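Lab channel / #folding
Pinned by the channel admin:
"Please post every new chain as: sequence first, then the structure tokens as a reply. Keep commentary short and put observations after the output so the thread stays searchable."

First post following the new format, from NK:
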Amino acid sequence: MKISIPKTKKPDLTRSNLRLIWRVFWEHAKKYPLSVGIIFLSVIIIQSIAITTPWFLKIFLDTAVNSALSTIDAAKQLTWILGVIAALELARWTLHRAFGVANIYLQAGAMNDLTLTAFNNLLGHSYRFFTNNFTGSLVRKVARLSRSFEEITDQIVFHILPFIIISAGILIVLFKRHVILGTALAIWIVLFIGIYYFIANWKLKYDRARAEKDSEATGVLSDALANIVTIKLFSNYAHEKTIYRNVMNELKRLRFWGWGVGEAADAIQALWLIAIELVLFYAWIRLWKIGAATIGDFALIQGYLIALFHRIWDFGKVVRRVYEALADAAEMVEILNTPQDIQDVPGAKPLAISQGGIEFINVAFGFHDHRKVLENFSLRVKPGEKIALVGSSGAGKTTIVTLLLRFHDIVTGKIFIDGQNIAEATQDSLRRSIALVPQDTILFHRTLSENIRYGRLNATEKEIMDAAQKAHCHEFISRLPYGYETYVGERGVKLSGGERQRVAIARAILASTPILVLDEATSSLDSEVEALIQDALKNLLKQKTAIVIAHRLSTIMQMDRIIVIDKGKIAEEGTHAQLLQRDGIYKRLWSLQAERFIPLHF
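Reply from TO:
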């Protein structure tokens, strides 16, 4: 059986995309100019000292074997050289401490800022964006963005920058000492870097594929855990295990290939290191033979090779890690540079609602070109009017509400509230003016008090309790061991569907907005509680404009007007009594629901 895994288009790591990643990282790093300055200055001085120390060791050895000096004079010079070396090492130790503190401050701050930037950006994306992306994958991308910054910063300040300074300094010293030694090392460094750049660039597409597959695996895992009840109900453990195993096996293959290439590169690198060591030592022998090199030069070459090998050996891994980190960051950076679907227009003003009148004028909307949900849809809701939207599933009822909340932008037409085009108002002011009680209520994994207070963050405890009492959830909350301080679990799983819905109603009551939208707000309640909620909603709906979506027609009989939606258009409208007098869709729906109460005889 072939398993279908959702795919999304991934960005290639082109030069343009790489520039975007570097720009995002630099924009967050430059907020800490003092730390960046200390880090780079410290690294330059530390590596300069590392180049200088072997030179003094060369002088030390040449002085020790110089037969022209007396023992006393040689000892004085050796002691002086030793003092210089000690002073250099002390300076390097001090700079290391300053570097360490600055690096901690930079990385902790920039990583925190990157995470906040990613979080803030995600919050601004449209409803459509989240329906097209796994939550688990988005979480993984945010985490990888900050870790990528940490990885790249570490590689730059601990390896790449020291390698550049060490290599340049060693070449300058060796060229001044002996052109042959400098030339041999320069040729070797250029070839080494060129080969490794080619390998890393070639391997980049595999690193990118690994990062994408890792995100996909996280998404599959998150999707399965979020639907664990469905898996258990249908006992499809084997099916889900197969899906996850297939994704993980592909991830294993990509990891094996990528890491295998890295291991092969390390083997090539080891041979190159042996080769340059033998070449330089052979060159020293030839120079020593003609008196152009000293024992101190041998120690200088050895010291430089050790320092260079330490950097070179890491360099291959450094390049690979940098590119892997860039691949890890690419997905989140692409999101950061993707325009958000729903944005406030320039100069958008806060929505000022005094009455709550709503008007849809020739509105057209579709989720894609081949699926038109609304076309030339017009509807006027008077201030304070209570209307109900009814119709079969997929008729467009919920879409009307989501357009009013501007979760989607309409294709053509206009939507007004109190004569103000919602497309020209700020999204925050629009949504603060409309309270929505959805059918599928999802709560934060926070306390009941915090979930209710979400309707109005500055509400007092008394106001929270009053709202809970009006929504008839105070009773079950009071029976809980921790009362209002009880945590509800992820997505509110510790509460029943009816309890979650009553909490959502309490939240809407607390919000006290001029416009109220109820999307099957009593669908999860038993008949006894529903009667209590209906009474609470009557008080809540007073002096408010309300739109009620309901499949249970018994809940909307008292509405001022009932709108029957069919295929994205208004098919009928009127009061409950008026619609029953017609031989239309509403009467048919009412008859079908009434028949459910007729007892069956077997």
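NK: The CA atoms of residues 352 and 418 lie 8 Å apart.
TO: also worth noting, Residues 1-11, 597-602 have pLDDT under 50 and may be disordered.
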